[in-house]
């Protein structure tokens, strides 16, 4: 029996491709399998090739597999685009309706199955996705009842008849494969552990993290691939008295966020590269007024509109240095959906603690991939609003004087007040200002205020700024950021199987950068490879900018697709 298996379904957008994958993946997740699902789709509403690749395993795997065991094709284009991924003796199940042709030069087991016809016989052609799931179940040695719980949750609100119709279509696909004598015992899955875990995307986990952190307002403008954070919070925030406001653009979104934060609310917004560019003036305003805001930036292929539905990690420079003038920001980069939840909570606390704009940097593969995640531990969630002025401090303000909102303190973080607090009256302006917020061009005050804002992170290394796993006495060190974590881990395991000593360092906070800690890992390596999805080696250059010394080799990929483990493995193997 197989410990892991890779499966893909493909067709035209609007044919229920995502639904097909979700039914299979969610049902198996409920039975104790670990799932990683990656969606490939075109930048259009309907039509154009799309596919959903799912990795099913008895242990956690946070990456696409190098190959396919099973391909389900709703059209010939799916075979033409994806057939090369089938492993030797892999399985191709194609809808007989379009007279499918097997890929040339591939040794595959090819089964035309009348998916559409079977669906029509059981009520509607639209249910061919259910027939495909049933056929898959037969090949994997799974019972049709594996899917009943999920179908009840998905369709019962439409009536029991709808659930039964879908179940009938699924069983018909299952039975067709059995009746045709298609016995593929080599593809039977080993049983899952029976533990039901969460199954969600990075975007869902970010939204959930914002909710847990106390967010009650989200002004935002939709943009792929960040829109799902909005969509998640549109459903959830009203249940706790909160709101999502769709703004006219990203400029409005960021300035509304600043206003809400000034008023005392925990607030977030979300965007991708083009929207982040529009937000830059507002981020500068948050910086000079020391107003904490949190922005989710889900990176995609650029520049400009670029490739809106494709993967890239090319906003790192923009997140760190995109604003005019000089301000401090916190920039965090979670590497999986679990970290998206916990690091989102941390990001809000850090934004309040240091009174700076904070960017949570994800990427398309992380934000939109479905992952099996252990249930969250809410004992790890706490809310820290930072240096809020006490009423005793406010009562001590001399009569007729303003509150020193931007006071020079030993920690460089000033006490903060919310509107309406007695004794807390002060000015707020986007120009340089005194301790009470009055505009000034005094050169001494200007220098002190700049130093106050820029030096807040001196000597600071935020918790969990990086992670390390692998051999302690490594010769090769692999360094990554964001969604490359699972891929690098698999490449590392293969290299270790070849007898190499390999470590994996993953950077999770880009500012304040953990220079001393990163340097200590670099110093122990004979070869260091920095792996990222952009053309210019942004992570490597950020390491250099922050003073990291050593011989750093770049591996970059920027064709719109995430790495697969073999690409990293082969690159590193050729170096040594």
Automatic annotation (TrEMBL):
Residue ranges constituting the Pyruvate:ferredoxin oxidoreductase core domain according to the UniProt record: 475-538
Pfam families hit by this protein: PFOR_II, POR, POR_N
Matching CDD domains: TPP_PYR_PFOR_IOR-alpha_like
PANTHER family on file: 2-OXOGLUTARATE OXIDOREDUCTASE SUBUNIT KORA, PYRUVATE-FLAVODOXIN OXIDOREDUCTASE-RELATED
Coiled coil: none
Record's keyword terms, sorted: Oxidoreductase
Superkingdom as given in the UniProt entry: Bacteria
Domain called Pyruvate/ketoisovalerate oxidoreductase catalytic: residue spans: 14-175
Residue stretches making up the Pyruvate flavodoxin/ferredoxin oxidoreductase pyrimidine binding domain: 209-449
Protein name: 2-oxoacid:acceptor oxidoreductase subunit alpha
């Amino acid at each position: 029996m197989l410990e892991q298996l890779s499966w893909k379904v493909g067709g035209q957008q609007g044919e229920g491709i995502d639904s097909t994958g979700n039914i299979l993946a969610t049902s198996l997740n409920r039975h104790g399998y670990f799932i990683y699902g990656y969606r490939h789709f075109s930048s259009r509403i309907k039509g154009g090739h799309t596919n959903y690749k799912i990795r099913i395993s008895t242990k956690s795997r946070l990456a696409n597999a190098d190959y396919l065991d099973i391909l389900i094709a709703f059209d010939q284009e799916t075979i033409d685009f994806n057939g090369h991924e089938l492993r030797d003796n892999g399985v191709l199940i194609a809808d007989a309706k379009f007279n499918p042709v097997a890929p040339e030069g591939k040794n595959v087991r090819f089964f035309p199955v009348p998916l559409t016809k079977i669906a029509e016989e059981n009520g509607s052609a639209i249910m061919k996705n259910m027939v495909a799931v049933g056929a898959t179940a037969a090949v994997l040695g799974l019972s049709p009842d594996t899917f009943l719980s999920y179908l009840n949750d998905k369709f019962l609100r439409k009536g029991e008849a709808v659930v039964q119709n879908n179940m009938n279509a699924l069983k018909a696909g299952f039975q067709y494969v059995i009746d045709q004598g298609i016995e593929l015992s080599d593809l039977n899955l080993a049983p899952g552990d029976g533990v039901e875990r969460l199954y969600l995307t990075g975007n869902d986990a970010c939204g959930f993290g914002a909710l847990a952190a106390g967010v009650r307002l989200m002004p935002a403008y939709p943009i792929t691939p960040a829109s799902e954070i909005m969509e998640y919070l549109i459903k959830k925030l009203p249940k706790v008295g909160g709101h999502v406001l769709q703004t006219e653009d990203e400029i409005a979104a960021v300035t509304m966020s600043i206003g809400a934060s000034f008023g005392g609310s925990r607030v977030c917004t979300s965007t991708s590269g083009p929207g982040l560019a529009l937000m830059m003036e507002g981020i500068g305003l948050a910086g000079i007024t020391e107003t904490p805001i949190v922005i989710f930036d889900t990176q995609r292929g650029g520049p400009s509109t670029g490739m809106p539905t494709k993967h890239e990690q090319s906003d790192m420079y923009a997140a760190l240095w995109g604003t005019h003038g000089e301000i401090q920001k916190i920039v965090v980069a979670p590497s999986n959906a679990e970290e998206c939840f916990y690091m989102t909570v941390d990001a809000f606390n850090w934004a309040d603690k240091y009174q700076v704009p904070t960017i949570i940097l994800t990427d398309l593969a992380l934000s939109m991939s479905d992952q099996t995640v252990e249930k969250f531990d809410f004992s790890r969630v706490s809310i820290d609003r930072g240096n809020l002025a006490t009423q005793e401090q406010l009562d001590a303000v001399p009569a007729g004087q303003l509150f020193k909102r931007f006071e020079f303190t030993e920690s460089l973080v000033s006490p903060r007040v919310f509107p309406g607090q007695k004794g807390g009256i002060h000015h707020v302006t986007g120009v340089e200002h005194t301790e009470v917020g009055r505009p000034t061009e005094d050169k001494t005050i200007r220098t002190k205020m700049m130093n106050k804002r820029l030096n807040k992170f001196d000597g600071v290394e935020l918790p969990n700024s990086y992670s390390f796993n692998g051999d302690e006495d490594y010769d090769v060190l692999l360094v990554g950021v964001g969604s490359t974590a699972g891929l690098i881990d698999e490449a590392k395991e293969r290299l270790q199987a070849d007898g190499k000593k390999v470590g994996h360092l993953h950077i999770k906070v880009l500012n304040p950068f953990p220079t001393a800690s990163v340097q200590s890992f670099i110093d122990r390596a004979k070869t260091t490879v920095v792996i990222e999805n952009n053309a210019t080696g942004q992570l490597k250059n950020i390491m250099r900018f922050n003073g990291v010394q050593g011989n750093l080799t770049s591996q970059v990929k920027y064709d719109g697709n995430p790495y697969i483990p073999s690409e990293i493995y082969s690159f590193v193997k050729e170096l040594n």
